[in-house]
Every structure is written in C-alpha cells, then in structure tokens.
Amino acid sequence: MPSQEDLRRMLLRLDNGPYPAYKDIKGSYDFPGFRLIVDHVQGDPFAAPSRMRVRVPLDVAGFPPDLLAGEARVVGVCSFLARRFHREARRASRPSGSGKSGRIDIDAPGQEVLPTTAALVREGAVELRFTVGLPARGRRILGRAAAEILCDRVPELVSRALRYRNLNPAEVRAAAETNEDAEALRSRLPELGLVAFVADGAVLPRLSGVDPRPLGAGAVPFESPPSLRVEVDLPNRGRVAGMGIPRGITLIVGGGFHGKSTLLEALELGVYNHRPADGRELVVTDPTAVKIRSEDGRAVAGVDIRPFISNLPGGVDTAAFSTQDASGSTSQASNIVEALEAGSRVLLVDEDTSATNFMIRDHRMQELIAKDKEPITPFVDKVRQLWEERGVSTVLVMGGSGDYFDVADTVIAMDAFRPRDVTRQAKAIAERYRAERRPEGGPAFGAVTPRRPLGGSLDPRRGRREESVRSRGVKTVLFGTEEIDVSAVEQIVHPGQLRAVGAALLRVRALADGRRTLAEILDRIEEEVRQGGLDALTDRPVGDLAGFRRFELAAALNRLRTLRVRSEAGRD
User: Fold this and answer.
1) Alpha carbons 271 and 404: distance in angstroms, whole number
2) Which residue from 146, 225, 409, 450 puts its CA 20 to 30 A from 485's CA?
C-alpha cells in the first residue's frame, strides 16, 4: 500500500497541473499510526470539498477499554472526538487560493449527542470522516500546499484529536459517562410510570432562540416540587433526584414568560441525549414523544382524521383526507394521527402553536353553532380517550383554558421558572366551577387507519439525474424536483439528520409496494440502520449523516406533495 511519502511525492508531481489531475490521489495510504483514505476528490476548487477518512487502530489510539464498553459510551466518546477534531481543524485550516482551497472540516455535533458517520468506532479502529478543500490557484493544482495539508497538518490533527494521551481524560470520561447515564435514565421511564424526567439543578433556558447553548448568568436551576420528586440510581452519577412527569395527561400552566414553553421545549429535545455541561444532560423524555402543532399550508395524503374532523362541507372525505393546503385544524389533526400511525406514545402540545378551534370550543360557541354544523371535535374531548383507550399520554402547555382541568391527571404551574404541583387546586377549581360546555368526543377515540405508501409517487429524478436528494439545514429536503418543507418539525436538530432522512426516503421508495404499511416500512428501515449503522442508507462512506427517529422520517414523507397512499379500504 502507498505510504505517506508516496502521497507527498505524487502531490509534488501534480503541482501546477490541471485541477482534475487531483483524482489520481484517490485511494488508501499508510501513515505512521493510522491510515488515510481519500474516498472522493472534488472535480473543481469551487465544488464540494474532497471526502477523506482516517482510521486509527484502537491499540494506537490508546483509549481505556472501559470508555468504549457499550454503545452509549461509544456514541458519547465519538461525539467528543468529532467536536475536538472540528476545533483543531479550525485552528489548522489556512484557506488560500481558489474556492474552498485549504479548508479542513468535519460535521460537528451540536448540543445533542447523536450517532453520526463523522466519527465511528468499528473494526478495531477509531474512524473520522472529514473534508478537505484541495488547494488551487485558479484551476491549477497547488501541489506543495496540498502535500503540506495532507502529509503534515492531517497527521498533527490525528495526534491531537484521536490519541488519548493528548486528550483531557476527565473530558473524555465525562462524554462517555454522561451519555450512558442519559440512556440508562430514559430506559427507566416505563418502569417508573413516567413519560419524562427533569433533574434537579438542570438549566433549561437557552441563550436565545437561535443559540441552543445553556443560559449562563440569570438562569434559574430547576427544582422539582416535592410531590413529583423521583430518585433514580444511574451507572455513573449514582442517585439523582428530579421531577418525574407521570403517564397520562399533564398540563403545564402559568403566566406568560414564566417558563411553560421552555419546559416543553426541553421535553421535546429530551428524546435526545445532551453533551456534558449542556444543562439538559439529565432531562430525558420517552423516545417516541412527538411535538404536535398546527401547520397551515402543508400537504396531507390520505389520512383518516375522522377522530377529530368529519362532515366537512361539500362531502370532503375525511376517512382518507388529502389536501395540498391544510388549514390549522386539519393540519393539527393530521399531525396527531400521523404520529400515532408511526407509533408515538407521547404527544407534546403548546397552545401557542396550536389552532384555537382545534383545541377548545366553549359553551357559548356551542350554543351559537350546533354540533351538526361544526365538523371539528376539539382536542379537549379526545385527549382523555387517547390515554384511556390507546395508552397515549399528552403533555400540554395551556394558559388560556381551564376546561382542560377536567381531563388532566397532573397540573404543573411554572412560577418564575420554578415548577409547582397544583393538581389539587386545579381539580378543586374544576369542581367549584363546573364547565358548562358539552363533551363532543363521542364514546370512543376512533380508528387510526394504516396507510400504504405507493412508491411510484416518490420520484427522485431531477434533469438527467436518476436520484437527486439534497437538504438545506434543518428546514428543507429537496427530493427530485419537489421541495419538502419540514420547518414545523421541531425535533430535527442537526442538518445531518435531514441528510440521513433524505437518504432514507430513497429506501422508502424502494419498499413502498402498496402492500406494506407505513409503520412496516419504518420498522424495516429502523432495523437496517440498527444492523448496518447509518452507512446502510448510502452506497459510499460519507461523514455528514446523523441519527434520526422514525417520526422525523415519517414527517418528511408525509409532507412530500406528490405522496399517494392506499388506505385500508383500498382507496388511492
């Protein structure tokens, strides 16, 4: 196999040659202590940078075996290594020349700790995948600069970021143990009868709406109310205490700006683990929890929304409801039914992002508009049925309607970011001031009808390309000529998740034969990723994919405007 010096000589020989000649360096090279693999060479200095990997044998990397014992620890350590490499690469990068010349980069993690393809432990080695902008002047190769990057700077980066002896042992251990503790805590939720846990001392507020780092000065540490305090033993931290949110129906109430939505947001992202010192590293939520909101204008394909909406004017079919421009109420109904179809056991709802007419219909409005003239059954009349019949819990931020006191099991009041258990007071108020409104939910919740996607409605072609799938940040997937808007899917936190979702949509297309239900397709893709990692979604190694849940994949599919499905009744 070619060596480090062979690569250096090749790059020096290419100096001042035409840029496409860089493709000659594709392949593997033995360096002292690691292997460099050049997977893809950019064809132009202005194109996406070249993709590369380094593989360091575990015995050379020198990590204590206990730090890599178990998947949770491995994912925590890999997230740490990707952050470390990113920091060191920014220092080592000296962009010069045309386009992306000289830039070394890696897909860096955010506050959440996700399995990624940027950093892996496999086949007895630590593997990092990164990109390099191969340097050029105009479209002529800068061979000496390239040799300095690949043969000098990259080995320095490997030593600084992947050799245990050059890392802070306490930081590496914290990454491993924090992730393991979060996984252990989340796994305990079912036996404790909880849908979520918020540790005492957690810092829930963030710096801003666009900066997810924890708020520093002025942040109020979380303190659980005694009646909801739960203690749990964790593998590394030992016994921790915090607020347990029980299964059932939980209201989060309080005045404006007192922390209701901040708590709900922490619960939304509690489906993921968080890095050490994030403030939310011991805030965990049932992994099937889905944030529900209204979403005017979204597409809906064949969803049975009869539990909430029926008898629409004009005879519109709500047993297999389809539209290219959903209203607030029809979109929120669809979002709930789609979440249930995908297997959610916990719904998270904030009145601020909900359709008012979907959430409540008060007595006066009932008197004015008879039920046979109102197609919407409000959520207040269905939320109890969801729990009692289907075992689906709801955590709901509600500041404007006390009618939900009647159906709630637990009521938490946020007061200056401090929670209080006010369940007894809320129930006493509900008893004293009995609601005049009449329940409209009927005797049962209703069916969640499975849908069978039709693969022919997923067309990834664009121009001459048979498959063109790209993403933009955490808001958009470009699937063929279609633009899928997932800006309202609030539990997508990293661009790599959306890139992986885009790749998974191609698997959906291959599996969608009109016979498999959506849930069966999601099960199949989950199993493929479980067996083969995120690499199972691509035909070549890439370093920019991050772990996603079945719910975000389903959300993207459901918002594809060309999607067609077959319902249980056989309608297309």
Assistant:
1) 25
2) 450
- Distances in whole angstroms, Cα of residue 138 to Cα of each of 109, 134, 142: 33, 12, 10
Nearest to 25 by CA among 39, 44, 15, 45: 39
Give Cα 377 distance to the centre of its chain. 31
Question: Side chain identity at 245, as an amino acid letter?
Answer: I
154 with 269, same domain: the answer is no
The range of the structural domain enclosing residue 523 comes to 451-567
Strand partners, 252: 397, 412
Residue 372 has pLDDT above 90, yes or no: no
Place of tokens 């979907």: 358
The reported pLDDT for the residue numbered 101 is 86
3-class secondary structure, 536: helix
Q: What is the maximum span of the chain, computed from C-alpha positions, in angstroms?
A: 88
Here the CATH number for the domain that contains residue 328 is: 3.40.50.300
Residues 311 and 163 both lie in one domain:
no
Residue that is written with structure tokens 């329940």 in the block? 439
- Same domain flag for 507 and 555: yes
With bands split at pLDDT 50, 70 and 90, how would you rate the model's confidence at 558? Answer: very high
Per-residue DSSP letters for 509-563? Answer: HHH-BSSS-HHHHHHHHHHHHHHH-GGGG-SS--S--B---HHHHHHHHHT-TT-
Count up the domains in the chain and report the number: 3
pTM of this structure: 0.95
8 Å CB contact between 507 and 76: no
Angle between helices 550-558 and 328-342 (to 10 degrees): 140
Of 145, 167, 189, the residue at which a domain comes to its end is 167
Shared domain for 154 and 225, answered yes or no, is no
Collapse the DSSP code of 149 into the 3-class scheme (helix H, G, I; strand E, B; otherwise coil) and give the result: helix
* Arithmetic mean of pLDDT, 230-234: 98
pLDDT tens-digit series, residues 298-312:
999 999 999 999 988
Q: Which of 107, 142, 167 is the last residue of a domain?
A: 167
* Residue 63 in tokens: 């990590």
Average pLDDT over residues 102-115: 96
| Measured distance CA(230)–CA(6) in Å, rounded | 61
Specify if 172 maps to a domain: no
Of the candidates 42, 133, 130, the residue with the CA atom closest to the CA atom of residue 94: 133
Nearest Cα to Cα of residue 254 among 415, 367, 120: 415
**Given a cut of 60, is residue 263 above it in pLDDT?**
yes
Q: Are residues 137 and 208 in the same domain?
A: no
| Residue 396, phi then psi, degrees to nearest 5 | -130, 125
Token pair in block for residue 515: 């016979």
Same domain, 247 and 345: yes
pLDDT at 91: 87
Give residue-wise pLDDT tens across range 488-531. Answer: 999 999 999 999 999 999 999 999 999 999 999 999 999 999 99
Kindly tell me the burial class for residue 239, based on how many C-beta atoms sit within 10 Å of its own C-beta (0-12, 13-18, 19 or more): exposed
Residues 62 and 76 in one domain: yes
Kind of pairing between the strands at 112-113 and 346-350: unpaired
What's the pLDDT band for 570 if we cut at 50, 70, 90? very low
Cross-strand pairs, 3:
30
Q: List residues bridging with 141 in a β-sheet.
A: 136
If asked whether residues 211 and 305 sit together in one domain, one would say: yes
Query: Which stretch of DSSP H or E encloses residue 323?
Result: strand 321-323
Q: Which two tokens stand for residue 342?
A: 């995908």
